[in-house]
Design goal:
Oligomer: single chain
Number of domains: 3
Shape: elongated
Strand content: 35-45%
Strand order of the largest sheet: 11-12-13-33-32-34-30-31
Number of strands: 37
Structural class: mainly beta
Radius of gyration: 36 Å
Distance between the termini: 100 Å
Helix content: under 10%
Largest sheet: 8 strands, antiparallel
């Protein structure tokens, strides 16, 4: 190194010292950048997300923080000036309820803080620059879900999750049942003395888990199909959906009804012996026409012909707005306008409207040929257990809500409510679901469409609704795991029981 180089360095060092001592340079920490103007600020919400949109004169740094505890999103822009956008306003939105834009520091016009106050937890928000950094977008979805799934016994798992939605919180319980696992069995069971709480019914049968089953009348009579061990306890109601359980434990979902006919026959009597029985043709007279039977042992609807057997009880329990004939040994032995007594070995034909008019043409002593059967005939197939419900929710993986076809009333089809449902996965597993509802601080319940989507998300390809409302109950090991909307478990007519892990059958 030359002496010349050393000399120049000394001169530069001396000048720098003198410059600093003279105050020629301000401390770097005290230098303030020129504020970046906030050109526009807006926020908006959709059904599923919240969006905040900033526009600047140039790219600017930011910080983004989300606190689950305080349920606040905070965005800070330290280099931005945006006094004209300061605000504190309440928002009419199910999730976002307040937006506050304020200075980052009360003593400075530079720096902006934006706080979004939320009604419930949400997923962590995302932020990103667009338009060469002159625009900042912050987005978050409105729904938040957390939960777990746990092993209960071989072939049985239980799970639940809590979900915050734009409409309110949801709490869902579900079970997965594998019928291929040894020791697993699923079957409906009837309550003792008409009605019984699900956990009591499950405990009495030694079942490890259970959900409530089909709809029922005030006296506990099932309103739809129940089959246990091949015995038809209660016939289908209209053409509503039911789940069938085969002898090998596999499941199917289908619409099941009862169909048949009734017809007057002529019996020619000779020397005390009935001979040459003939059916009257439909065009001879009204009494000779073949009349379709619309159902068995259920409530009679307009213009319907319903058959009542001893499985219904001692009488039909009908009103006086129809006409009924009592048949014993194929012969009409009496009539009534309603609530006719049912012969132990016979039946009653009960009609309303046009069907009642047909019955009025029959007289005591006439002979009747009547037959009825299940369609599809599960009794003649490999189905050993069945329980009805409805409407259907999924068919082959697609939403197929058959509420109108199955003639369900509005209190079931409309709005959100506690729900119980079941589904079948592509692997043949049975899904049982109980959704809490009518509890604003816990769970708002689901519509049928939302319920169908839930079952599909859980893996179901076919699914159906069961009784819901205050009846919705899910039990595992004698513990009620959902929160019944009545406050306490409601006594029900029947339940769908699960045995697993060597439990008694």
């Amino acid at each position: 190194m030359s002496a010349r180089t050393i000399g120049w360095r000394a001169v530069i060092t001396l000048l720098l010292v003198l410059f600093l001592r003279s105050g020629g340079m301000t401390n770097a920490a005290s230098v303030q950048a020129i504020p970046v103007p906030l050109e526009s600020f807006m926020y908006f919400t959709t059904d599923d997300k919240i969006v905040v949109d900033f526009k600047f004169g140039q790219r600017t740094p930011y910080t983004l923080d989300y606190s689950e505890l305080s349920r606040e999103i905070t965005i800070e822009l330290p280099d931005v000036a945006g006094e004209e956008f300061y605000t504190d306003e309440v928002v009419n939105d199910p999730v976002l309820y307040r937006v506050t834009v304020s200075p980052l520091s009360p003593s400075s016009a530079q720096g902006v803080r934006v706080v979004l106050s939320l009604r419930h937890k949400i997923p962590a928000p995302l932020a990103f620059h667009v338009s060469q950094g002159r625009r900042l977008l912050v987005e978050t979805k409105k729904e938040f879900r957390e939960g777990f799934e746990t092993f209960v016994a071989p072939g049985l798992a239980y799970g639940h999750w809590r979900k915050d939605t734009p409409n309110g919180p949801l709490f869902v319980n579900y079970m997965k049942v594998d019928p291929q696992e040894p020791g697993v069995k699923v079957s409906p069971a009837m309550a003792a003395h008409g009605k019984e709480a699900v956990h009591q019914l499950a405990s009495r049968h030694g079942a490890i888990a259970a959900v409530n089953g089909i709809y029922f009348a005030p006296d506990g009579s099932p309103l739809g199909m129940v089959m246990i061990d091949g015995e038809l306890i209660s016939p289908p109601y209209l053409n509503r959906t039911a789940v069938g359980i085969r002898a090998d434990g596999t499941f199917l979902i289908d619409n099941v009804t009862i169909t048949g006919h009734a017809q007057r026959v002529i019996q020619e009597q000779s020397e005390g012996v009935l001979e040459n029985a003939q059916t009257l043709e439909a065009d001879q007279d009204l009494s000779g026409t073949l009349w379709e039977i619309d159902g068995a042992n259920r409530r009679r609807l307009a213009d319907e012909l319903i058959v009542y057997t001893s499985e219904n009880g001692m009488s039909t329990g009908t009103n006086n707005y129809g006409w009924e004939i009592i048949v014993d040994g194929g012969e009409v032995v009496g009539w009534a306008q309603g609530n006719a007594v049912i012969p132990p070995a016979g039946y009653v034909l009960s009609g309303h409207g046009k069907a009642a008019q047909w019955l009025r043409n029959l007289e005591v002593g006439d002979y009747i040929d009547a037959e009825w059967r299940l369609v599809p005939d599960w009794l003649q197939q490999d189905i050993v257990h069945a329980v009805g419900g409805g409407p259907r929710l999924l068919r082959a993986g697609q939403l197929d809500i058959t509420a109108e076809m199955e003639r369900f009333q509005a209190d079931i089809t409309q709005g959100r409510a506690p729900r119980t449902a079941l589904g079948i996965t592509a692997a043949g597993e049975l899904l049982l679901v109980a959704v809490n509802g009518r509890q604003n601080n816990i769970s708002i319940g689901m519509t049928l469409t939302e319920l169908a989507g839930l079952l599909r998300d859980l893996g179901a390809i076919d699914a159906m609704n069961l009784d819901g409302g205050g009846s919705s109950t899910m039990v595992v090991r004698d513990v009620v795991l959902n929160a019944p909307s009545d406050g306490l478990p409601r006594p029900v007519s029947n339940a769908l029981l699960v045995w697993a892990g060597g439990g008694t059958h």
